[in-house]
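Dear Dr. K.,

Following up on our conversation at the group meeting, I've run the structure prediction for glucose-6-phosphate 1-epimerase from Hibiscus syriacus. I'm pasting the input sequence below exactly as I used it, so you can double-check it against your construct before we proceed with anything downstream. Let me know if the numbering doesn't match what you have in your notebook.
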Amino acid sequence: MASENVYVEHCKGIHGLDKVILREIRGYSAEVYLFGGQVTSWKNDKREELLFLSNKAIFQPPKAIRGGIPICFPQFGNIDSLEKHGFARNRLWSVDPDPPPCSTHSSTRAFVDLILRHSEEELKIWPHRFELRLRVALTPAGDLLLTSRIRNTNTDGKSFTFTFAYHTYFFVTDISEVRVEGLETLDYLDNLHNRERFTEQGDAITFESEVDKIFLSTPTKIAILDHERKRTFVLRKDGLPDAVVWNPWDKKAKAMADFGDEEYKQMLCVEAACVENPITLKPGEEWKGRQEISVVPSSYCSGHLDPRRVTFTG
Ligand code: BG6
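The predicted structure tokens came back this morning:
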């Protein structure tokens, strides 16, 4: 177990589940549960929560936690015979006691590496040996970075194929006052219409009913503008060409046992994903997918979205 310090604390969360708290000196923090390898909280320097976590979330394995950032692997959705969104989000991950340093982000001290490997039980469902390493890092500026490395460790010479998503639930003040920039005019597969392909029309995306779309070949930068709070989430991604936008709206909200009837007003999922073209890895090969989220005052970002200027800081 990594030594305890002011930046990384290992402790117990709800129902005694193991969790890791990351802290930065200006007051930023993030929490990660080993169950699901799931970020459940990300706070700014005013200790305001930036991610949505349902009041009805069930912290009881094997039910995945409703909110935060679930990891969808080895599949996004329920195309295959596998469980919906794969099994990574409802398995117990372990902590790497001796993670490699943050080479590209040397000033970042608040980070943890979680690992998920196939188990004998899993091999019956998905007959592949793998290692999934998730690094969750909180930068001194309060940005939240997630890096996943998936390695094929099969010993039978077989390749495997998967899809993936960071299923991020952003906390918003009022969904009807939210707009998403960076996805306009793109093609998407509509989950509400059997994944039929359409083209997004108009300016930015706004919300007045249920939305469940997989945007294809998206730019590496997407902005989620919360008008009421005058703040913008900026999502940067790498290795994840698609972006899923989901809000269940009122009817679906009522049908979900672990989600409040009115909670759809306070959340929006924008998910950095790789869905349309699944990844295939040969034994020994590794894939890497990153997402970086930050929050800025809205005036800074609105109208200035230029995907070509995206640079990853780590
Ligand atoms: C989204 C999907 O990513 O996740 C939706 O596009 C789905 O179709 C939603 O309803 C929630 O899934 P779950 O399994 O967590 O209820």
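Two things stood out to me. Helices lie at 120-125, 249-255, 298-301. The first helix runs from residue 120 to 125.

Best regards,
J.T.
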